[in-house]
Amino acid sequence: QSALTQxxxxxxxxxxxxxxxCTGTSSDVGGYNxxxxxxxxxxxxxxxxxxxxxxxxxxxxxxxxGSKSGNTASLTISGLQAEDEADYYCCSYAGxxxxxxxxxxxxxxx
Amino acid sequence: xxxxxxxxxxxxxxxETLSLTCAVSxxxxxxxxxxxxxxxxxxxGLEWIGNIYYSGRTSYNPSLKSRVTISxxxxxxxxxxxxxxxxxxxxxxxxxxxxxxxGNGYGFDYWxxxxxxxVSS
Lengths: 110, 121
Hints:
The complex is a heterodimer.
Chain A: E1 9-12, E2 18-23, E3 35-40, E4 47-50, E5 64-69, E6 72-77, E7 86-93, E8 99-101, E9 105-109
Parallel strand pairs in A: 1-9
Antiparallel strand pairs in A: 2-6, 3-4, 3-7, 5-6, 7-8, 7-9
Chain B: E1 3-7, E2 18-25, E3 34-40, E4 47-53, E5 58-60, E6 68-73, E7 78-83, E8 92-100, E9 107-111, E10 115-117
Antiparallel strand pairs in B: 1-2, 2-7, 3-4, 3-8, 4-5, 6-7, 8-9, 8-10
């Protein structure tokens, strides 16, 4: 069970869009539509942002959207805002009731 | 509102056993969902440790399976983590979480605030 691959960092100016990729294998990301995304500000617990690839929990702004193609899932933040600066982690169900996280991506708002 | 709160010793010595408890409020853990533990070494990413279903079925990260036990105490509405034979590599912030799986979707929807457990002599 290897960690999912995410870029170390992405950046964008306020109002722009950024996308974070999350690459796994056919045993996790590619095998199930059960990718979730988490936002983590420094010193805080992760926050549930996207689940089942594309679904947003109640209260999450629609600026956050998810997608998947093959073994790669993506989180897109549209209309980037200062408060979106944080670390983002993807996570995938990997079968047999197991889970795997990505290494995390730091989003910087320029 | 579902709330989770981790508790446990502030420091564990190498080779000893780490024990943490997660107290849940706002939901009866014996009613449904999975309940899980994740950890995050300082300055690093998240790692899934394991989950327990409300029925008691467990699943663990293969890399930790030989050292991990997760259990439920429905009478106290809490669940616990034990990790044996710890080393400095087990130093991390440990988070408990409620885990969706099935008709409610899949993901970790509620998290505790986390507790830092240093492993040091």
